[in-house]
Design goal:
The protein has a seven-stranded parallel sheet, sandwiched between helices. The longest helix has 14 residues, at 143-156. Helix 5 packs parallel to helix 6 (173-185). It is of the alpha/beta class. The chain has helices at residues 12-15, 30-42, 95-103, 123-131, 143-156, 173-185, 193-196; strands at 3-8, 46-52, 87-89, 108-113, 135-141, 160-169, 189-191. It has one domain (3-196): 3-Layer(aba) Sandwich (Rossmann fold), CATH 3.40.50.
Length: 198
């Protein structure tokens, strides 16, 4: 079974209390996120990492406080989830083709996005087709927003999708419960860091 670890928005602005848009309790995710990243790297498992990459006047900032502006410190991934020499896949049409020759050797592909849903980057579906994985292990923040978009989008692609319940965080526990219940109802599976790295 071809497995891909799908790391959602593990960026400083979300994970650290000092970040521009911190998720409550997300700093506690650093250890499990580090374990998942090290395991994937040691076992040559492909990591796809989504990352907000906003402009200074992004339309999303009408709803959310400004965060993850491209090029700022807060937009960076936490160091323990970043492998050496990742490929960054922007949202521009044709970005995948420009990076195609390097994809085979990349252990981490960072898929940039300007909206909640990572599938608004048109290159992501093309990337998934190219990788031909049949199992995705999903974790990160925020459960009821970006993680939900990633997990449900992957389910729609017909793959086995596992949500790492001790490596996600929400803004509202009730919304997280609803997300997990809906995810399971659509065929998604739950797992833990220990099980995913066994």
């Amino acid at each position: 079974m071809e497995t891909v670890f799908f790391d959602v928005d593990t960026q400083l602005d979300f994970l650290l209390p000092s970040g521009a848009l911190p998720v409550p309790g997300a700093e506690d995710l650093v250890k499990p996120l580090t374990e998942l990243t090290r395991f994937a790297n040691a076992h040559r498992i492909q990591i796809i990492s989504t990352a907000d990459a906003h402009t200074e006047n992004d339309a999303e900032f009408k709803k959310w406080k400004p965060h993850c502006v491209a090029g700022t410190i807060g937009q960076r991934k936490i160091a323990s989830t970043l492998l050496s020499r990742p490929i960054v896949l922007g949202s521009a049409a044709g970005a995948l083709e420009q990076s195609a020759s390097r994809l085979k050797d990349a252990s981490q592909i960072i898929v940039e996005k300007q909206m909640l849903d990572c599938f608004t980057n048109p290159n992501l579906r093309l990337l998934l087709d190219l990788l031909e994985a049949d199992r995705y292990v999903v974790y990160g923040v925020v459960t009821e927003y970006c993680v939900r978009c990633a997990a449900f989008g992957l389910l729609d692609a017909g793959a086995r999708v596992e949500l790492v319940t001790d490596a996600i965080r929400s803004l509202q526990p009730a919304d997280e419960r609803e997300t997990i219940e809906s995810f399971q109802a659509q065929g998604g599976k739950l797992t833990t860091v220990a099980a995913a790295t066994a």
